[in-house]
Amino acid sequence: MKFAGLSLSNAGIGPVLRRIAAAIVTLLMLAIGPSVPAAVKTTDDAEAAQRPPVIMPIFFTSKSDDCYDSGIVTAIKRIATLSQNYVNRTGGIAGRQLLINLLDDKRDPQRAAANLATAIGDPQTIAMAGFTSSNRAKTAFDANGKDLKAANIPFISDISVAKIIADYPSVFTTRPSEDEERMPVIAEFVKEMKFERVAFVGLQDNVASGNLGDALKRVLAPNAIIADHRLVLKDDKLDPAAISAMTDDLKAKNADIVFIAIGNDRRNDVLNQFKSAGFTPPVFVNGRIDNLVSKSGGAMYPNDVYQLAWDGFPDVYSERLRDLLLTSIHPEYWVFQGEKNDAAPGWKDGTCKVRDDDVPPNPLDDENMRALQTGMRYADMIRLVAEAARSAPTAASVPDLREFIVNELNTTYAAGKGMFKGRFGDWSFRPTSRAAATAPLLVVLPRGIGHPQLAPMQFLRLRNDAMRRIDTLYADIDLIRADRIDDNDQTFLADFYISMNDRSGASIDQIEFSNAYLDPGSNSRQITITPIHDGGKSDAYPDHMKIYQVTGKFLYSPNLRNYPFDTQRFSIDIQPKHGSAAFIVQPPPRNLRDKSVTVDSWDPKDQYVSYDEDFVRTVDAHTLEPSVVPFYKASFVWLMKRQTTDYFLRVVVPLAFILFIAYLSIFISTHHFEAIVTIQVTALLSAVALYLALPKLDANIETLSDRLFLFTYLVLSIIIAITIARVNRRIEPIGWLKKSLALLHIAIVPLMVGLMSYYVYQAMTA
């Protein structure tokens, strides 16, 4: 018979060639299958590109005196660009391409005002995002207020003082409102702690500081504020004499808590003066408290220091951001190091030091995670605008699109009705203030402990605007053993101890292990709980500590793309069992957790605790009013890497021998064509048989193991194809072509095997 100009005298070759053809067709189908959606999407992108693009200015702040640009600035730029690309890949803004425009105010209020004027003046501006300084925002709004109102441009800001945006109906903020969210928490905190002599230390002519001081006077009892000091800045510094006089006054009045809102850089001056004067009451600071930990690990201030936080828990990762790093092919991409700032004065006076770029920061370092969080907050701003415009008519003008987006933000994403689930958080806005409906959390740096943690009490707003106290559950899980990991059933057996502080009445009865396996027959969790210690005083265990041993079957969600060189996430998820006994989990510091665990056929890689929000969505039967009730879920997570010795012995070594034998066959004289092809086809069929003999994984994606076999089929098919071409009667007389095929025959297999080996090595070391 003849096949593509090649005459074959052996009739038995026909079935072999049919198998080869089928294999090649299968490989081609697999290769071109994923490209079809991409082609469709490219067409959609082309249609969108025909419409005029719309602009979204992004306002951010850099510091000209920093030796290197902040990692936060780098994160904003990089992640905002990624968000732009994502929006454009998914339809753009009502079918139009989105272009972001990064505008840096460099901490200059007048430049911030000029940037805002530029953005408002562009007729293609569809929305705006950014602004973190209330002072600069107020200057910019005062200078452009009339034009801002007239343009009706949706503006998602990051301003902490909601009253600044009160007169601008199109401006929203991702920070919780002072009056609606923060001050009610502070008022409940002061009442619960029985503080009766409250003092405030702030700054003159500072919007955020002054707003906090004024708000305290509104929400606390009339006689609760015994002192109000608004200090004056000169050259961005405080007068030491003014600090001393203020301290003497607070000491004389015996303040039992002091609220301080003077900026992180100047706060230590006040606290050091307190210590020098022998006056160290609890303080409540407006800003981060982690920089009040000394290098030796102890607290720099000898009493409790409190703050309000809404960007994460101490020693707990956002599950969404942690998952981003875990599933990323290139986690180093999420390391943010700013460029060298040659204009910084420190390079001239010698205070700037050259950074060792060969040692990049860990993506999970606190500083890098803060940069990632900030960048993702900006990403959420951009994607929220795109989501709000999702159902807008594509023929709408830019002014009409602006109005449509503003209306969506005011209705679809109004607090209690709807929520945008972003990468950083979940976003909705209070109808009155247009500030984020986000409950701030009380964080404390306890006296004598150099580590921030959630305060024992937290306060959340209910539907009727009443404040509800919920407790912080100080808990830890020590995983002893995990086994019977089943990728198909997506389950594993776990044996662990859970310990919790019982000072607030904590009990295992409050806890729902939300990923414990539900028995289909009884609809009950397949777990067994054994009490070890019931709390109270003890000689053997820490006081007020309840300890339980838990064994059971738990669910997990395997990502098998890199199987068998994969790293999987195994977790114990806990959340309140009843809404009437809500809690938020605070684990111990990372360095105090027990990371040792026994897992058959797996190597422990990392351990962390993460949180995420879940929601109960309801619709009132009488009013048809939707509501969304959030609650927190904590996950104690262990990352484990699969051991691959067995896979190498059962798969990699046999495939290597199969390829080696097939490769050796090419050195047999072409006069023995039938024997050569028989060896090569047998090798191909052996590889197929080996694949079919492996345990079947119930995965909806191709695994690395699948890709390894497909690669082997491809190499063997290429070997067979070149073998056939070398004896083709049309090619044989062409000397240079025949020699080229022979050289290709010899070189292509080592080259392809080398590339595949590198690919597998990268997967193994990921």
What does this structure look like?
- It is a single chain.
- This protein is α/β, with parallel strands linked by helices and 766 residues long.
- Among the domains are: 2-33 and 645-765, Methane Monooxygenase Hydroxylase, Chain G, domain 1 (Up-down Bundle); 51-174 and 331-406, Response regulator (Rossmann fold); 466-642, Acetylcholine Binding Protein, Chain: A (Distorted Sandwich).
- The protein has 17 helices and 31 strands.
- The strands form 7 sheets. The protein has a 7-stranded mixed β-sheet, sandwiched between helices.
- Strand 22 and strand 23 (491-501) form a beta hairpin.
- Helix 8 (240-253) crosses helix 9 (264-276).
- The longest helix is centred in the C-terminal third of the chain and has 31 residues, at 735-765.
- The radius of gyration is 32 Å and the shape is globular.
- The model is unreliable at 1-45 (pLDDT under 50).
Poorly predicted regions: 1-45
Radius of gyration computed on alpha carbons: 32 Å
CATH topology of the domain at 51-174 and 331-406: Rossmann fold
β-sheet strand percentage: 15-25%
Main β-sheet description:
7 strands, mixed
Extended strand count? 31
CATH level-1 class of the domain at 51-174 and 331-406: Alpha Beta
Helical fraction: 25-40%
Mean pLDDT: 86
Describe the global form. globular
Q: Distance N terminus to C terminus?
A: 51 Å
Which class do the helix and strand fractions yield? alpha/beta
CATH superfamily of the domain at 51-174 and 331-406: Response regulator
Q: Please tell me the CATH architecture of the domain at 51-174 and 331-406 by its name.
A: 3-Layer(aba) Sandwich
Distinct helical segment count: 17
Largest sheet, spatial ordering of strands: 9-8-12-13-14-19-20
